[in-house]
Amino acid sequence: MLIGITGGMGAGKSALAQLLAELGALRVDADEVAREVAAIPAVIESLQAAFGRDLLGPDGCLNRRELGRRALRSDEAGQRLEAIMRPPLSAAIKCRLAQAVEKADGGVVVLDAPLIYEWGNEGNFDRMVVVDAEEERCVSRVQQRSGLPVCEIRQRMARQMDPRKKKARADFVIDNNKGLAALAEQAEVLWAKLNGATHHD
Q1: With contact defined as beta carbons under 8 Å apart, do 96 and 34 qualify?
Q2: Any bridge partners for residue 173, and if so which?
């Protein structure tokens, strides 16, 4: 059973995916796959050609934060980044999910990814889960973990689909406004429902 977990920046989708993994799901993290894809020499070459040769740090690694900044400068820049990253990233995620489904052998596989709805991929999943939290809370979570300026965080959030639209299309909505203990409780309820569904499907 394949479950898509999504939500806006800082909503807590990774935290929920991690809790489900602890309960027995196999987790695929789209951000981790994106980091691997961004390390492929041909992808780095395309990104440098589009966004500047100075994107490589002294260690030879891509400066993802700076890349994000440049991609935010205009809609056209954002589209250019997506045109470069989306084909290899979609292929890599598809491959990783297929491996996980095989390994899970009828169990639950979760993909934790920010852009499932934006990319129109929700049809690939048996169930969709949206993690939701108040905007201010999301902004402060992202700021704590990334150190990005608030204006930049809000700019990035504005690029994602309106959370209300995501919630309206989800099979399950998880409210993550109350901290980890409350999230863990909801994860257990969700886990029981998902396992109930696997036995009935």
Answers
A1: no
A2: 130
